[in-house]
Amino acid sequence: MLRTTAIVSCLLMGLAARSEAAAAEANRPAVLFSERFEDADLAKRGWYDGTAFRIVGGAAFGKGCIEYEWVDGRSAVQGSSPVRRLFEPTDEVAIRFYLKLSKGWGWSGRKYHPHLTHVLTTENSKWHGPAASHLTLYIEPVGGKLRLAAQDIENANAPHGLTQGPLRGGYNGKFYDSREILFDDDRWHCVEAYFKLNTLDLENDRPNHDGIVRGWFDGRLVIDHTDVVLRSTDFPKMKFNQFLMAPYFGPGLLPHAQKLWIDELAVGTKRIGPLPAATMQQSTP
To answer: Tens digit of pLDDT for each residue in 51-71?
Structure first.
């Protein structure tokens, strides 16, 4: 009798522990980190790999936003450095930020660039460049449209090869663009993206076509794909864990001197959503 009671007690304790773990997972905060860019002390808030940050007025919300500038004839960004932030590894990631382009903003004239923000994974180091990785996600405006994209150039010699299309000129990528031109003024706009890794059929050694790529512009869903492959069975432990902000025009692609501003960035595990529109400011930095 005592043995039976002990077994029942252990089972109940196990169920309670699993219930507590499930409750903790359900209550995990959706936001992993956020940045308002109210001052230049980004390093004190966990950012790294950047040396200088130009914080100016005219923010979407609050008193400050970060400014990136390009000078005529130079493709390298000025004013603020590219910068990174690690976050808790996760199978799904949501990004929200406000973006403003300077008046008369010019595009590259190509079907690519400028790059803007990226997400990398645990399969690369905290210092790895975005251009040739096991998986890099892109959230950027291209030709006036919102683009979400992915590349996995470093997997060219992996057992299962590339998942983001063949190499062309040393690069690959799959692109998920909005149908409409969205960026056509010099006002603040809310940009959101959500990515979820596809699951894997390890028994049959193949990926499932169930990854998710979604994008929103000022709260409106403009990109929606639910059949995406972002990884192969070469990377069963892959998780998202790094955000990289690195505005960049390739050599010869900068049309003229111009600026952009970013404000109210947040990264989480679920869609975060825009801030109340009634409190937005539309003054000029």
So the answer is: 999 999 999 999 999 999 999
